[in-house]
């Protein structure tokens, strides 16, 4: 790539080029950054992405609305259930339907579990990159429990595909709630252990405080959303600001930072995990029996017993599989608060079986676009800390 | 609310508008884009959430460049659509919104719409030598012969573009 990698002759003075990625332990996925250094100081950073580009949006145009769900798993693969929820919510908005109460509650439950899993990975791995290995191990034990829970619910640990248009693939099984209750206690303890290791650790302070600091105005201008924006002091959280799935009925707080640096992002994520535990506890308290799919055979498949015994249901089954749902003509943009920020789906329907255009608005793309701005003038070791705290997930960055 | 405001401040700028499932949408001519954006920015629509495009090959103005804005104070959202013909360019918003830089690069990469005044309009997701623009409706789903070395035919469809 002659456009970004310069020859030695083109560099003036003692400058040096360091190629970070596409396969580097701290890039977590595949992305490349060409750093131009003067001693230890970064004078230029050119990010290059697209190594994980699968053409998700193009593929979506040739798949039916239901068939797109497995592709959403692979966007932010650290919290795939949240992408399922975000996408299903968008299609339901396009259809103009409301899902049953229990389905909403379970969606909130698994979303918050996924948020914790995502933050655990982000915080733990950020610490590993900087050199603090122990916290990572404490945290990943809890992540394992979350994946066990996902396996119980969806049959899959990572690529869950748990939602369907109009509800959920199935109800949560017996044993899910007791394990979640145990998890709530253990996870709280693990977060405390992690905080004991990091929050007052002078080395952690030295490596994170003041690194990647950003003003609220700049953060908004760069298109930041999620924990990175809140760490900069903007209390924007879609769960509070534009509630969906009944989030307005839960009692939780939005942690906000002041400087937007790596340390603040760490604190915001840590507190968000605690708030998610709070939400999960409330969901468990109010979980009531009921259906988890809409009772509308134009959207949801009828139960198998009915398909085999009733003419009408058989026809509905056939029509749904062969012709898909009857979609209105129109366009919607639906956003949910994913672990990284605002995950948006923009759907354009021409009334056909497949979406005419499906756009995924990835939260980490605008954040990553500010990378050069964040690390320029800093030390090369800080680039790793900033990259970790941005929580770039190449799956959703490149789509 | 904001649409009435735009109408009052810039009469004639909004050529079409609709409201579907609570999403406010306005269509404006590309000549009015910078004026409207400037007004939006002053009215508190500070967060440029997304820029993308939609391809309508049968239309005379083939593309819609679609902008999504969010007002953080009032939580109001607005979608602005700018129709452009193939080969035409749109004014870049990278000067006013830093986040527009990469979004516009992505739209350029996948649709081939050029943005006037963009500081660094390079492909973002595909590589520099990539032929064609992947999200155009006439770009084949399997990539056609884009992924072949010289002299070979496409691996699917017996070498013909789908």
Can you describe what's shown?
The complex is a heterodimer of chains A (399) and B (162). With 399 residues, chain A is of the alpha+beta class. Chain A has a single domain (66-294, 328-398), classed as Cytochrome-c3 Hydrogenase, chain B. Chain A is built from 17 helices and 8 strands. A 3-stranded antiparallel sheet of chain A has the order 1-2-3. A 3-stranded antiparallel sheet of chain A has the order 6-7-8. A two-stranded antiparallel sheet of chain A has the order 4-5. In chain A, helix 5 packs antiparallel against helix 6 (176-198). The longest helix of chain A has 30 residues, at 101-130. The model of chain A has no long low-confidence stretch (mean pLDDT 88). Chain B folds into 2 domains: 2-125, NADH:ubiquinone oxidoreductase Nqo5 subunit (Beta Polymerase, domain 2), CATH 3.30.460.80; 131-162, no CATH class. The model of chain B is unreliable at 154-162 (pLDDT under 50). Classes of the chains: A alpha+beta (399), B alpha/beta (162). The interface between A and B is large, with 44 and 37 residues.
Topology:
The complex is a heterodimer of chains A (399) and B (162).
Chain A (H helix, E strand, L loop, with lengths): L14 E6 L11 E7 L2 E8 L7 H5 L8 H5 L6 H16 L5 H30 L3 H21 L8 E2 L2 E2 L7 H23 L3 H7 L7 H6 L5 H5 L6 H4 L20 H25 L17 H6 L1 H13 L5 E10 L2 E10 L6 E5 L2 H6 L1 H5 L4 H11 L3 H5 L1
Antiparallel strand pairs in A: 1-2, 2-3, 4-5, 6-7, 7-8
Helix pairs in contact in A: 3-4, 4-5, 4-11, 4-16, 5-6, 6-11
Chain B lengths: L1 H8 L4 E7 L2 E6 L4 H10 L4 E9 L7 E8 L6 E8 L4 E3 L8 H12 L2 E3 L46
Parallel strand pairs in B: 2-5, 6-7
Antiparallel strand pairs in B: 1-2, 3-4, 4-5
In short:
The complex is a heterodimer of chains A (399) and B (162). Chain A has 399 residues and is α+β, with helices and mostly antiparallel strands.
Using the 3D structure, state the CATH architecture of chain A: Orthogonal Bundle
Percent helix of chain B? 10-25%
Mind telling me the CATH superfamily name of the largest domain in chain B?
NADH:ubiquinone oxidoreductase Nqo5 subunit
Strand arrangement, major sheet of chain B: 1-2-5-4-3
Poorly predicted sequence stretches spanning 5 or more consecutive residues of chain A: none
- The overall pLDDT of chain B, averaged over residues, is 84
CATH level 1 class label of chain A:
Mainly Alpha
- The end-to-end distance of chain B, rounded to whole angstroms, is 46 Å
Assign the structural class of chain B, choosing from mainly alpha, mainly beta, alpha/beta, alpha+beta, or little secondary structure: alpha/beta
The total of helices of chain B stands at 3
CATH domain fold name of the largest domain in chain B? Beta Polymerase, domain 2
């Amino acid at each position: 790539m002659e456009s970004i990698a310069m020859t030695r002759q083109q560099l003036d003075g003692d400058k040096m080029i360091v190629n970070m990625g596409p396969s580097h332990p701290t890039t977590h996925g595949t992305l490349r950054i060409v750093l131009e250094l003067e001693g230890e100081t970064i004078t230029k950073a050119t990010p290059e992405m697209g190594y994980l580009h699968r053409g998700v949006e193009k593929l979506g145009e040739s798949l039916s609305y239901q068939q797109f769900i497995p592709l959403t798993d692979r966007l932010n693969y650290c919290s795939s259930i949240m992408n399922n929820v975000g996408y299903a919510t968008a299609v339901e908005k396009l259809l103009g339907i409301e899902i049953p109460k229990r389905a909403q509650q379970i969606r909130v439950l698994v979303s918050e579990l996924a948020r914790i899993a995502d933050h655990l990975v982000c915080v733990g791995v950020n610490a590993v990159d900087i050199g603090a290995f122990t916290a990572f191990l404490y945290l990943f034990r809890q992540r394992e429990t979350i994946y066990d829970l996902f396996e119980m619910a969806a049959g899959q640990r990572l690529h869950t595909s748990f939602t369907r248009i109009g509800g959920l693939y199935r109800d949560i099984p017996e044993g899910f709630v007791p394990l979640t209750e145990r998890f709530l206690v253990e996870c709280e303890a693990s977060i405390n252990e992690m905080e004991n290791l990091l929050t007052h650790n002078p080395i952690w302070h030295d490596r994170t405080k003041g690194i990647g600091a950003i003003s609220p105005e700049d953060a908004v201008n760069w298109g930041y959303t999620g924990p990175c924006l809140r760490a900069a002091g903007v209390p924007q959280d879609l769960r509070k600001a534009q509630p969906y799935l009944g989030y307005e009925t839960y009692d939780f707080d939005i942690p906000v930072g002041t400087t937007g640096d790596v340390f603040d992002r760490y604190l915001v994520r840590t507190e968000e995990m605690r708030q998610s535990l709070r939400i999960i506890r409330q969901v468990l308290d109010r979980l009531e029996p009921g259906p988890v799919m809409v009772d509308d055979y134009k959207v949801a498949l009828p139960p198998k017993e009915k398909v085999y015994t009733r003419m009408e249901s058989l026809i509905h089954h056939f029509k749904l599989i062969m012709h898909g749902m009857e979609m209105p003509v129109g366009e919607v943009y639906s956003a949910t608060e994913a672990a990284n920020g605002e995950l948006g789906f923009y759907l354009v329907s021409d009334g056909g079986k497949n979406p005419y255009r499906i756009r995924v608005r990835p939260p980490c793309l605008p954040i990553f676009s500010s990378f050069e701005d964040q690390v320029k003038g800093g030390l090369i070791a800080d680039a790793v800390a900033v990259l970790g705290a941005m929580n770039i997930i190449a799956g959703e960055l490149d789509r | 609310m904001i649409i009435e405001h735009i109408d009052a401040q810039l009469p004639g700028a909004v050529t079409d508008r609709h409201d579907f499932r609570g999403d406010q949408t306005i269509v404006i001519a590309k000549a009015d884009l910078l004026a409207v954006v400037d007004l939006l920015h002053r009215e508190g629509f500070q967060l440029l959430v997304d820029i993308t495009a939609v391809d309508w090959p049968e239309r005379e103005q083939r593309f819609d460049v679609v902008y999504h804005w969010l007002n953080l104070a009032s939580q109001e959202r607005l979608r602005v659509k700018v129709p452009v013909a193939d080969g035409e360019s749109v004014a870049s918003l990278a000067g006013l919104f830093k986040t527009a830089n990469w979004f516009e690069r992505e739209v350029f990469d996948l649709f081939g719409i050029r943005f006037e005044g963009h500081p660094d309009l390079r492909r973002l997701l595909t590589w520099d030598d990539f032929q064609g623009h992947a999200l155009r409706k006439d770009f084949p789903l399997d990539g056609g012969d884009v992924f072949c070395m010289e002299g070979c035919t496409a691996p699917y469809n017996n070498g013909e573009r789908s």
